[in-house]
Design brief:
alpha/beta; 2 domains; 311 residues; 23% strand
Length: 311
């Protein structure tokens, strides 16, 4: 069995871009070519652990991924995310590769998903990218989405003033124009592409002041308990897209709205199927919400991408 270290993984990700591979995974999933069982979770006192697995019917590997989020780790000087991925042969069940990524691959494939969404659904002109949250995913999403949209103007809100200031300094060093705001209504009023990246269990962003023509990429709500968007946002959205219609029945922003009977399943469309139709920017009169809860096919694609390129 091959063992790939975190440093080797980072070297590959610096040299090559897995975006097209991950994008093809979404399309394959929506075509019914992937077998993805329900997510398994451990909810601990100080964190949570997600276990995802799956394979493509015509593929040579199945993946098992363990990813954790311990959101108090910052006070210990540790990253909030950790984990690993393993690839096994679909022919024999043999363990082929252990990727000791410490959560890096999950972070990157999630950020890539945001970039894919922006690639297909962002407004023709993005005036500013609004970011709810200041952690690892917020940074990665900004970098990825700005590459797609060309927008370097960032409006950010964070629960911690200190964390928000650290975010501002680190992103400004990389050439971003970052404005910190105290009220989320201001963020909505100044941004026509909004990314939410927190583990909040209560709505943070409301319908108030969201501009027509806004794309909202909801990243943080990946369990049944989490919620970042007020349900009214989905009710008023022109289109609602999810990575998995099946998964959205039990987790994410859409599951909340469905359980409340605020929207119907017929209003929800799947990302891979929409990608297959080609780019369709958010028009000036409409609002698009894309709810991403994370799929094992993303893990499979990025793990195989690294394995095929590592020395």
């Amino acid at each position: 069995m091959k063992i790939v270290t975190k440093s080797e993984i980072l070297t590959v990700l610096r040299q090559f871009d897995p975006l097209l591979d991950v994008e093809s995974g979404f399309v394959d999933y929506s075509k019914g070519l992937a077998c993805i069982p329900p997510v398994s979770e451990l909810v601990l006192e100080k964190g949570e652990v997600h276990i995802k697995c799956g394979y493509l019917k015509a593929g040579v590997h199945y993946v098992i991924k363990v990813a954790s989020g311990f959101y108090g780790n910052s006070v210990l000087g540790l990253p909030s995310s950790n984990g690993l991925m393993m690839l096994f042969s679909t022919e024999t069940g043999e363990a082929k590769c252990l990727l000791q990524d410490e959560g890096i691959l999950t972070d990157h494939r999630t950020a890539i998903a945001g970039a894919i969404v922006a690639k297909y659904f962002a407004p023709a002109v993005v005036s500013a990218i609004g970011v709810v949250g200041t952690g690892i995913q917020a940074c990665l999403q900004v970098k990825r989405v700005s590459q797609v949209t060309g927008c370097k103007k960032i409006i950010v809100w964070g629960r911690s003033t200190e964390a928000a200031e650290r975010f501002r300094r680190s992103m400004q060093v990389e050439g971003y124009n970052v404005e910190l705001i105290e009220h989320l209504e201001s963020l909505a009023g100044k941004s026509n592409l909004i990314i939410t990246t927190t583990p909040s269990s209560r709505p943070l962003l409301s319908q108030n002041r969201i501009q027509a023509g806004t794309l909202i990429i909801a990243i943080g709500s990946d369990t049944p308990e989490k919620q970042e968007l007020d349900t009214d946002i989905l009710v008023n959205a022109t289109r609602i897209i999810v990575d998995s219609k099946k998964q959205s029945l039990t987790r994410g922003e859409v599951s909340r709205a469905l359980r409340a009977s605020a929207i119907g399943e017929h209003q929800v469309f799947e990302l891979g199927a929409e990608i297959a139709k080609g780019r369709r920017p958010t028009m000036a009169t409409e609002t698009t919400v894309v709810d991403l809860t994370g799929l094992a096919v993303q893990d499979l694609k990025i793990a195989e991408f690294v394995l095929n390129r590592v020395n």
